[in-house]
Write a sequence for this structure.
C-alpha cells in the first residue's frame, strides 16, 4: 500500500516538474497570447523571484492546493482529509481567482468595479490571486501599520505572505510544508499570460523578434514588465477624512448599487462571512442610512475605512478597504444608493 502511494506521488511530482520545465522552453510557433509571462521573460534573459513550488516535498499537488484555496481543506497525501485551515474564512472570502483589472499596470478601483461587474466577479478588499506568483512584493505600504513586524517575513517572500494571510487574515492555522507548496503549485496554474497584458500586435511582434534573434531583449523585458504591477499598493484612509472628502462629491446611485451588491452582500448576505446580515429590505437601508454619518460599527464610513474587530470569543472580523480598493467617490456612491433605497 505504502509503495503504491509512493509510486503515485513520484509520478505526480515528475509530472509537475515536467510541466514547469516545459513552460520555459521556446515554442516552435513563436510567441502567442497564451505564453506565460515568466516564460517570456526567462527566454529574454530576465529571471524573476523564485516562487516555484518545492516538488520534492512529499504530497505536493496543485489539485490539493486548489482545494485548500477554495475550500480550506484538502485530502492528505496518505489518505483522509486535513483539518480546516480556518473556521472563519477561505481564500475566496477576500480574493478573486481570476483577472479583476483590464489594465494590470494601474490600480484603479472604479475601473476594477466595472471590470468585475462585466465578468461577474465580486468587488473585494484584497487583490486577486490571479497573477500573484508574478508579483514581487506583498503586504505593501500601510499593511506595515496593521501587522507591524509580521510584515517583514512576508513583504518580499510569497511563502511568508501566504502564511501571514493564513494565520492573521484568515485567523486560522499555519499551513504545513506540503500544504504551502501545494498552494504555490496551484497558484502557478493561474499565473499571468502575455494575453493579459493588452500588448498590441506590433508589440507582440517586437517581443517575438527579441526572442528569436536576441536583439533588443532589454527593451522587450521592460515592455512586458511595464504592463503589470509588481505589488499591490495599499494605503489606508480614515472615516473622518472620507466623510469630509465626500461632502464635496455627488453620489452615483447606479454605481452605489453595484458596490452594495458585489461587495457588501458578498460577505453579509445571509451572514455568509459576517455576524451582521444585509439584504434588500427597506428596513436594512434605513438602518444603514441612520448610521452612516457616525463612527459606530454599522457606519459604512467606519467599517470600510477601519474594518470591524473580532467579537469577544470570536476571531472572525471584517477587513478594511484600502483607498485603492474603494475610493471616496465610491463610498459617496454607496451612501447615495443607501439613501435612495431608504427613502423609497
Amino acid at each position: 500500500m505504502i509503495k503504491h502511494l509512493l509510486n503515485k506521488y513520484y509520478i505526480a511530482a515528475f509530472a509537475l516538474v515536467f510541466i514547469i520545465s516545459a513552460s520555459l522552453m521556446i515554442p516552435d510557433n513563436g510567441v502567442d497570447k497564451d505564453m506565460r509571462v515568466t516564460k517570456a521573460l526567462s527566454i529574454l534573459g530576465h529571471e524573476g523571484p523564485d516562487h516555484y513550488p518545492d516538488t520534492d516535498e512529499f504530497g505536493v499537488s496543485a489539485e490539493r492546493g486548489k482545494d485548500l484555496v477554495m475550500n480550506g481543506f484538502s485530502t492528505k497525501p496518505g489518505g483522509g482529509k486535513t483539518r480546516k485551515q480556518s473556521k472563519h474564512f477561505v481564500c475566496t472570502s477576500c480574493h478573486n481567482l481570476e483577472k479583476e483589472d483590464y489594465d494590470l499596470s494601474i490600480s484603479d478601483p472604479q475601473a476594477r468595479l466595472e471590470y468585475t461587474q462585466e465578468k461577474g466577479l465580486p468587488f473585494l478588499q484584497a487583490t486577486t490571486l490571479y497573477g500573484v506568483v508574478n508579483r514581487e512584493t506583498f503586504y505593501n505600504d500601510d499593511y506595515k501599520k496593521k501587522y507591524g513586524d509580521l510584515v517583514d517575513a512576508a513583504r518580499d517572500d510569497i511563502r511568508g505572505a501566504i502564511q501571514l494571510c493564513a494565520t492573521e487574515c484568515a485567523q486560522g492555522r499555519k499551513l504545513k510544508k506540503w500544504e504551502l507548496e501545494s498552494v504555490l503549485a496551484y497558484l502557478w496554474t493561474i499565473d499571468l499570460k502575455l494575453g493579459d497584458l493588452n500588448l498590441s500586435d506590433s508589440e507582440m511582434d517586437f517581443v517575438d523578434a527579441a526572442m528569436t534573434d536576441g536583439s533588443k531583449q532589454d527593451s522587450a523585458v521592460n515592455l512586458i514588465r511595464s504592463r503589470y504591477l509588481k505589488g499591490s499598493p495599499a494605503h489606508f484612509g480614515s472615516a473622518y477624512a472620507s466623510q469630509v472628502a465626500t461632502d464635496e462629491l455627488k453620489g452615483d446611485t447606479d454605481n452605489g448599487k453595484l458596490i452594495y451588491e458585489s461587495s457588501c452582500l458578498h460577505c453579509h448576505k445571509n451572514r455568509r462571512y459576517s455576524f451582521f446580515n444585509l439584504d434588500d429590505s427597506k428596513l436594512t437601508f434605513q438602518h444603514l442610512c441612520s448610521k452612516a454619518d457616525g463612527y459606530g460599527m454599522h457606519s459604512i464610513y467606519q467599517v470600510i475605512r477601519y474594518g470591524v474587530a473580532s467579537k469577544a470569543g470570536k476571531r472572525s472580523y471584517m477587513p478594511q478597504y484600502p483607498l485603492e480598493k474603494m475610493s471616496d467617490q465610491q463610498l459617496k456612491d454607496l451612501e447615495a444608493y443607501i439613501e435612495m433605497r431608504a427613502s423609497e
The longest helix spans residues 2-22. Confidence is low (pLDDT under 50) at residues 21-26.
